[in-house]
Description:
Layout: E1 3-6, H1 8-16, H2 23-30, E2 35-39, H3 40-51, H4 59-63, H5 65-72, E3 75-77, H6 81-89, H7 97-109, E4 112-114, E5 128-129
Parallel strand pairs: 1-2, 1-4, 2-3, 4-5
Helix pairs in contact: 6-7
Amino acid sequence: MRAFLLDTHAYVWAVSEPNKLSQPAREAVADRSNRVFVSAATVWEMAIKHHAGRWPEAEPLLSGHWEIVDRLGAKHMDISWAHARRAGGLKWHHADPFDRMLAAQAMTDGATFVTRDGAFDALAGLDLLW
């Protein structure tokens, strides 16, 4: 059993367009022996972008989040003090607070981070899957 944390786009694609995920990512999410997590930072990011008018199609994902995550077979990952401290202290020149939090959560909790975003390649110590 392995643990995986989904980047925001990976979560959205897993529930709405799974064929956009890479084959290894699709297999990891579909394997019910794995622990798949969706971060509170993902909901935070979607809500901010939705309410700013930059992501209007996020409304169903926000309003049905708990049920959607459950159907996916995933678990919620809250943001802890340890996550916050690590995110702020990452030796990584990347200013996006959502990306920093997601990376810190994966690293702190020993999860493989599922992302297509190449910016994470520069972060030493982060186990990636795409």
